[in-house]
Amino acid sequence: MGDKYMKMMLMTDNQKLKKLLHLTFQRDSGFIDVLQDYQLAERFLKRWPSEWEILLLDQPTDHDLAQMLQLKRTNRHLKIIVLARQIDPAVLIHWTKFPPDLILAPEISLQDLIQKCEQMLVPTIQAPDDYPTLRSLQPQKNGRICLNPDEFNIVVDREIVVALRPKEFELISYLVQAPGRVFTREELMREIWQYKYFADDRTIDTHIKNLRKKIPFPCIATVWGVGYKYDETQNMG
After folding, report:
1. CA–CA separation, 79 vs 102, rounded Å?
2. Range with the lowest mean pLDDT among 1-10, 16-25, 52-61, 209-218?
3. pLDDT for the residue 124
4. Which of 39, 155, 178, 206 has its CA 20 to 30 A from that of 88?
5. Torsion sign (Cα): 26, 203, 131, 35
């Protein structure tokens, strides 16, 4: 990726494409989230509009494409790239004001795809973290932490609201479901990032490091050579 730091959301169920792009982004210090649920993707993009620069849609249905193109009404910086053999002209005519930024053949090589993405990048300003006010929560309390899935934040000791990124929230939610249980990196990668045959320690470790910085008390313990566990009784020194 050269000197460019790319932030991408990929919508696909293609395991090969998912793995290749993930490897490329990890190697070149990029940032990629892979999703299959378009409604969830829409929620993320509306909640954190500056979190991603490129939305890559792998052969979406006409309905999903139209749904994603609507996001450009509010996310003007978002670049939408579509991998598709054919798109219904009615969809593009209906959204002439916000068409895809680029339409590519699904057979495009990975190198050419990355190059096309890089050419579309422009400098962006990172929005400040949004710390929402504490409002009516559906309590999912685990010890000192209360999970708030509607806002993707956690509430510590009933008063401290901690805003998290989507994968950070998924990770802490997964750990707190079984306090004291050790989860391997492979299990976390499989369950949260949906990779069955590939795991990169840096991905997990980076998100754990971020969570430790944000949560105001030690609660994630490292079990060396195995993985991580949620433990509010630990002494991190």
Report:
1. 8
2. 1-10
3. 38
4. 39
5. positive
What are the E-state strand segments in 37-192? 54-58, 79-83, 102-104, 141-142, 145-148, 153-156, 160-163, 183-184
Rounded to the nearest 10 degrees, the angle between the axes of helix 166-176 and helix 201-214 is 90
Taking the C-alpha atoms of residue 42 and residue 70, their distance in angstroms, rounded to an integer, is 10
Q: 3-state DSSP call for residue 195?
A: coil
Q: Over the stretch 173-189, which tens digit does the pLDDT of each residue have?
A: 889 888 899 998 878 87
Cα Rg for the chain, rounded, in angstroms?
19
**For residue 174, what are its two tokens?**
């997964």
Instruction: Tell me if residue 230 falls in helix, strand or coil.
Output: strand
Count CB neighbours of 207 within 10 A: 20
Q: Are 225 and 182 in contact, with CB atoms under 8 Å apart?
A: no
Name the pairing type of β-strands 7-11 and 54-58.
Answer: parallel
Return the bridge partners of 103, or none: 82
Whether the Cβ atoms of residue 179 and residue 232 lie closer than 8 Å to each other? yes
| Token pair listed for 221 | 């313990």
**DSSP H/E element including 98:** none
Up-side HSE of residue 31: CA atoms within 13 Å toward CB?
A: 14
- 3-state DSSP assignment of residue 13: coil
98 is written with which tokens?
Answer: 């916000």
